[in-house]
Write a structure and sequence with these properties.
387 residues; 7-stranded mixed beta sheet; alpha/beta; 15 strands
Length: 387
């Protein structure tokens, strides 16, 4: 008799989260060791409700479509499990005779994954628990990078370049682009590629460095005065010198995190009111993490690989680990997978390196050496006719 497995998604879906699901399902079918393949409908919420989707007999052609399906095909949630929830979780695992549990998510999801592993061990439940990394924020520790980041970074870079060309082609206003990133500025940093691809001035602000708003406005005024057009890119979570977010929705999500938002509009309002310049605020929001047309092919391939690796590791008896990525970039990019203890990853946030931030509003070449292979190739070469 084969094993029953359960896959769940946690947190914000990425453009490639379904590729990891595809990797798990197809590897499970190929193994010949899996009986039932279940997915939790809306992540932890589905586990608590005993609401599972049976993927066992879903046609292979449908599973293949996961490769180009954005968001979460099985549903995700931002539910932070409490101590009172875990007995219900174990009850569901027992009811469906789950032998292997896979949680695909970020920091908080890895914490949930680790707690399920520890509780199952304590209760004597024969359960293999493996975390599958997923976060466009790229803020998981130990792993070189996270599936989902490369695609979000590519979207940020290309969208910023397009806006930069617009700003320089009709330089009558400052364009402010807000990108996702509450505490870590990895995705916003990618938008600085616009300075390399276009002839526009670009300023970039990440949450790792507090913003002196007076200096920010002075820098904006000086760069705009060059007459080449100006694009200002900001992480949604940037804070002032006092540590207070420049914009705060006042809402807290299911994990207890404050939800930022409106940063681009705040900066735009300051530019208009204090500098007397025209300004526009742009915010792609969820499109930045879900876009399939801008998906990174290396990101897709690695997302599939971590799902497959997770399934194989669990069937080989591994538990209490997250799949992590090791990478080499010289002489050319290549990656490999390994297992990292969940306890070393859970709730640990990897910030953007301060040494890669130049003068508070620029991004060092070292970041692009790191990120370009993850974003994929074939970046456009634009016709820059104005000197």
């Amino acid at each position: 008799m084969g094993k029953n497995i359960l896959v769940a998604h946690g947190g914000g879906p990425t453009a490639v989260i379904n590729r990891s699901l595809q990797g798990v399902v197809e590897a499970a079918r190929a193994s010949g060791k899996v009986d039932k393949i279940y997915a939790a409908r809306f992540g932890a919420e589905g586990i608590l409700a005993g609401d599972l989707i049976d993927l066992t007999d879903v046609p292979a052609s449908t599973i293949a479509k996961l490769a180009h399906t954005p968001a979460s095909a099985i549903g995700s949630c931002r539910r932070k499990l409490t101590n009172a929830d875990y007995p219900t979780v174990l009850e569901t695992l027992r009811k469906f005779e789950i032998s292997c549990f896979f949680y695909n998510g970020g920091n908080d999801s890895m914490d949930t994954c680790n707690k399920v592993h520890e509780l199952a061990s304590k209760e004597g439940l024969d359960l293999r628990v493996i975390g599958i990394p997923k976060t466009m924020d790229n803020d998981l520790e130990i792993t070189d990078h996270c599936p989902g980041f490369g695609s979000a970074a590519r979207y940020a870079a290309l969208s910023a370049a397009e806006l930069a060309l617009d700003a320089s082609g009709l330089p009558i206003h400052v364009v402010v682009l807000e990108l996702m990133g509450r505490n870590a500025g990895w995705v916003t940093a990618a938008s600085a590629l616009a300075a390399r691809l276009t002839n526009c001035e670009v300023l970039t602000y990440l949450p790792e460095v507090p913003v002196d708003e007076d200096k920010m406005l002075a820098d904006i005024e000086a760069r705009y005065a060059k007459g080449r057009g100006l694009l200002v890119t900001v992480s949604e979570g940037i804070c002032g010198l006092d540590g207070t977010p420049l914009a705060d929705t006042g809402i807290v999500d299911g994990f207890g995190h404050k939800i930022p938002g409106g940063t681009a509009q705040h900066v735009t309002d300051q530019i208009i009111q204090k500098l007397g310049l025209k300004s526009r605020a742009e915010k792609p929001g969820l499109l930045g993490r879900a876009s399939i047309p801008y998906v990174s092919l290396p990101d897709q391939e690695e997302a599939y690989a971590v799902g497959k690796f997770a399934l194989e590791a669990a069937l080989n008896g591994e538990s209490g680990h997250m799949v992590a990525i090791a990478a080499e970039r010289i002489p050319q990019y290549r990656s490999s997978l390994f297992l990292a203890p969940l306890a070393d990853v859970a709730n640990v946030e990897k910030k953007f390196p301060l040494e890669w931030i130049v003068d508070g509003n620029g991004i060092a070449d070292a970041f692009f050496d790191y990120a370009m292979p993850l974003m994929g190739g074939d970046f456009p070469e634009y016709a820059l006719l104005r000197k």
